[in-house]
């Protein structure tokens, strides 16, 4: 049994908070994904949230069929993942995703891994992706249709406050400084 999405809702037709965010719903977390501490192994947080990136790309017009037809894809070049709460076997989770910013070649997205009700956040990741021409395997501008959809998604997500932690890089004290 895997944690792969069992149902994906791209838009929720209601007026509840977060209704325009893209959502990826997951099957319950299997015991095999938990580590010796009894909680979800840290790597599976990113596995789940990278599947949410696919939800965003699908919504932006880069689903499997379009990627093949356009010979175009997106590669993740940076992630900043933050863990907030432990996740245990059997937990049902939903990723809430939004576009933070974009330009002709880049896409910056934010995912929050929440409980099924959407009331508790377990982890968040900020991702930077670049458009890639698969023939040359080099960065390239988004196809026009994809860029238009990305901009529409970004505009629909601008109603939300900037997520706490977005734009933060990993930092550490200067060498020799006490913690």
UniProtKB/TrEMBL annotation:
Classification via SUPFAM superfamilies: Thioesterase/thiol ester dehydrase-isomerase
Pfam families according to UniProt: 4HBT_2
Protein name (record): Thioesterase
